[in-house]
Automatic annotation (TrEMBL):
The gene is hemL. The modification N6-(pyridoxal phosphate)lysine is found at K270. One of its GO terms (molecular function) is glutamate-1-semialdehyde 2,1-aminomutase activity. Its EC number is 5.4.3.8. This is Glutamate-1-semialdehyde 2,1-aminomutase. It comes from Candidatus Brocadia sapporoensis. Pathway: Porphyrin-containing compound metabolism; protoporphyrin-IX biosynthesis; 5-aminolevulinate from L-glutamyl-tRNA(Glu): step 2/2.
Length: 430
């Protein structure tokens, strides 16, 4: 296997670093966790990416989740073109915003009212403000390893036990900003129960990735989500499902539809923007009506509900109404996951595999991964070998062990089978 030629990417990365901090506009793109220099992309089509050196890759990042229909899906591209020609932003309401809200509510009935924003971060930040304003309480519970965007108060590293205060994970976040945040281990319902019994009356909300996708894919234990619902109801705490990744990914109705749990608020992003920058938060009418201008809790946005982004989101969600899409995605994803699992088994490579619909993960570890602590036990050096081995063979996986593999409708059986074949070669070098 010849080494990839990536001269132009290397040159672009060197130049990018003279203008952009670290050469990238979002840190994980920089390959810091796997070493090497990032590949600069020229174009995407279907399940493939082409880099500036004209290497082609089968892409399993899918822009980190949004591209469930693949790159440059012709129907989405057409709607974006049409929308652009009518003007890119008006700063006044449009019917497209009603349409996208309607499509979201049809798939996720718990979102009785929806407010559009521009990113997942903005959605979670706004949902937390709303929960605090609505309950007139300050404290927030989040879980270790769950990512909700770069919201100040959520950039927290848990203390050593539920009684100790956490510390900020980033300079620039004052201790005072996280003093109302309680970080608990994911999948540990007793920890939630204990904290809520003690100080339930202080807690505004619990925010959770109902199926976690930002420490690799970690599934909730049986009864965990039901437990969260029960405890929050008992203490009058707002339950926020962060479905920025899982909404329309695992099913049109997200994790809440698969587990039959109705959160009070839900945050969305990624797929609902069809590849353009969109986020949304929504939920119970009584809570959402506290948002300005119908209520006192302020939240606004110059480009929120942007007509081009709405057009991309509408066509995407309309296409996704076809339930046959999720059936095919399930088959393809299962084919990939089962194939990767077999490669590991045959080669005697310790690995723990997780999957829900078209998001999946191969953890290089011999222990089950159920939370952040167990995820951290993975062999990240082995993951780096996996990543570079696959990249050299033309398969673009996330440059970090702690991310999901995303399958899109554009992935064919042929590409999936060649991915498995390449993986079989790569493990020989482990
Ligand atoms: C990606 C993601 C976010 C942040 O969304 P951005 O659009 O990157 O701000 C929040 N929550 C979850 C669960 C995510 O996966």
């Amino acid at each position: 296997m010849s080494k990839l030629i990536t001269e132009k990417s290397k040159k672009a990365f060197a130049e990018a670093q003279t203008f952009i901090p670290g050469g990238v506009n979002s840190p994980v793109r920089a390959f810091g966790a796997v070493g090497g220099t990032p590949i600069f992309i020229k174009s995407g089509s279907g399940c493939c990416l082409t880099d500036v050196d004209d290497n082609r890759y089968v892409d399993y990042v899918g822009s980190w989740g949004p591209l469930i229909l693949g790159h440059a899906e012709p129907r989405i591209v057409k709607k974006i073109h049409d929308a652009v020609a009518r003007g890119t932003s008006y700063g006044a309401p449009t019917e497209a915003e009603i349409k996208l809200a309607q499509l979201i509510k049809e798939a996720m009935p718990s979102l009785e009212r929806v407010r559009m924003v521009n990113s997942g971060t903005e959605a979670t930040m706004s949902a937390i403000r709303l929960a605090r304003g609505f309950t007139k309480r300050d404290a927030v519970i989040k879980f270790e390893g769950c990512y909700h965007g770069h919201v100040d108060s959520l950039l927290i590293q848990a203390g050593s036990g539920a009684m100790t205060l956490g510390t900020p994970t980033s300079p620039g976040v004052p201790l005072d900003f996280i003093k109302h945040t309680i970080s608990l281990p994911y999948n540990d319902i007793d920890a939630v129960h204990e904290v809520c019994e003690r100080r339930g009356k202080d807690i505004a909300c619990i925010i959770v990735e109902a199926v976690a996708g930002n420490m690799g894919v970690v599934l909730p234990k049986k009864g965990y989500l039901e437990g969260l619902r029960e405890i929050t109801r008992k203490h009058g705490i707002v339950l926020i499902f962060d479905e920025v990744m899982t909404g329309f990914r695992v099913a049109p109705g997200g994790v809440q539809s698969l587990y039959h749990i109705t959160p009070d608020l839900t945050t969305l992003g990624k797929i609902i923007g069809g590849g353009l920058p969109v986020g949304a938060y929504g939920g119970k009418k009584e809570i959402m009506d506290s948002v300005s201008p119908s209520g006192p809790i302020y939240q606004a946005g110059t480009l929120s509900g942007n007509p081009v982004a709405m057009a991309a989101g509408i066509v995407t969600l309309e296409i996704l109404k076809d339930s046959a899409i999720y059936k095919t995605l399930e088959e393809k994803s299962n084919r990939l996951a089962a194939g990767m699992e077999k490669v590991c088994r045959d080669a005697g490579i310790p690995a723990y595999h997780t999957r829900l619909g078209s998001m999946l993960c191969t953890f290089f570890t011999d222990l089950p991964v159920t939370d952040y602590a167990t995820a951290r036990k993975c062999d990240t050096k082995r993951y780096a070998k996996f990543f570079h081995g696959m990249l050299e063979r033309g398969f673009y996986f996330a440059p970090s062990q702690f991310e999901a593999v995303f399958v899109s409708t554009a992935h064919g059986e042929k590409e999936i089978d060649s991915t498995i074949d390449a993986f079989r070669e790569v493990v020989k070098g482990f």
